[in-house]
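Researcher: Next entry in the queue.
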Amino acid sequence: MSIEVWAPKARQVRLRRGDASEIDLERGADGWWSSDVRLDDGEEYGFVLDGGALRPDPRSKRQPRGVHEPSAHIDLTDFAWTDADWTGRQLAGGIIYELHIGTFTPEGTLDAAIERFPHLVGLGVTHIELLPVNGFNGVHNWGYDGVLWYTVHEAYGGPRAYQRFVDAAHAAGLAVIQDVVYNHLGPSGNYLPEFGPYLRSGERNTWGDSINLDEPAVRSYIVDNALMWLRDHHVDGLRLDAVHALLDNSDTHILRELAEASDALSAHLGRPLTLIAESDLNDPKLILPREAGGYGLTAQWSDDWHHAVHVAVTGETVGYYEDFGALDALPKVWTEGFFHNGTYSSFREREHGFPIPTEVPTWRLVTFAQDHDQIGNRAAGDRLSQSLSYGRLAVTAVLTLTAPGTPMLFMGEEWGASTPWQFFTSHPEPELGEATAKGRLEEFTRMGWDESVVPNPQDPATFERSKLDWAETSEGDHARLLQLYRDLGALRRAWPELTDPSFAALRAASAESAAGGGASGGVGARAFALGRGDLSVLVNLTDEAVSWDVAPGRVIVLTTDAAALLVDGEAVVPPEAAVVVGPLR
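Model: Structure for this entry, 585 residues:
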């Protein structure tokens, strides 16, 4: 076998093996060094640049002793897959479930997560989206501080456990989407700049130096990584973190390059492969076909949908939520996808976004009421379940799973988990841990938060508090809410209107123009009539019953409150409740 590494900065590169013997690598074209070497399974190795300290392989597939230590050889193709009959799952019509391996189960491992697959199947979930699992320094964190993108964090079980997870998911009929971070590198264990110009010096984004997308080898590092997950780990899709932070001035944007490579692999494998962008741009170019001048990604997250729903159910209008206090915010994102589609954003102090062409399928927007960022980036990491009544949580469930986009749930949302999901880290370096904790505290106290409610991310208790309590799923309102989510998942499969991708089939109005009842009290005390074809979703967030006229022959197909009535062509929805009305069939 041949081992190679891109190290254009080095004058000499040596391979050091577990027995401390070293082999000189030969320099080839474009800064690549190589040698014919056979490594045994599990054998540790690393590179020595110009006589310095040993560094792990930038393309290491396994780091058994952490990101500062030697890599270990593993052949990812040497796994006994049982998913030969797996034909994949298209995103259209699906339901995504976002989870963090470390806090999804008490054990916090990939193997333990497999045991919860029946729960996900019962919800109607089709795609599991894993927060980043690549190598980072420490035992636990969110995963966005990765420095070795080709690895699987050892505490989760390492690469073999990851392959077992994907194989078992496919056996259960579940597709796997892996969250990947290509816009920055973490603060500890990042040795890539010693090898070559992976970063742009002096050009930063929110998290540090920007990735150097002007360098062809760095672009290949990203594309090859994406293909590794899709090909060698049999993953069904990738969620691309914060693509607005990818600074690319080339003729072919890296997102288009990723989409082209993914589509080519999909054609070869004969199964759909999905690329989902997290983007702050509100630009449909990401999801438009390449034939129409777009990048050809499968879908993108819609923060606008989250913000509109959050404001509607909570009444909170601080910071970037301010614009979404408008009465038409929820109806607009229901019918147009983006709220800011060329409109003025008070948070950004400028016009923002572009309209989505009506020809774009609605499922290309991933919509959610809760996710890891919107919960974990709150001062106390509090979920909606920690402040809302059961009625409002039930309304949120209906909005989430009847939405025109592809709905996504965040782990525990389906039973109103009482556990928070807080920002946690485990930096072994005392100075880095202290700086992280101090920065977090200063950020929220500047915004007026009481510092006593801001948890220390370095405190192990912060991590432990964030683990789900599965015992809750059979208790009281938790069990009641879980059944509602299951019913809504079944409803999506029973009614084609709820998976119809056409913007033309959508309609929406606020209480002031559509309701016959009193919707008073301002933001957080409103009612909405939302439609998808022959189905109507009637939402009452006021403190009194609201009524709507409905077409003849309609019946209640789902309600969150047994007191809802449909009599003589009038639907009466109790306070803090939602009703889905459709034709008798």
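Model: The longest strand covers residues 199-205.
Researcher: Noted, moving on.
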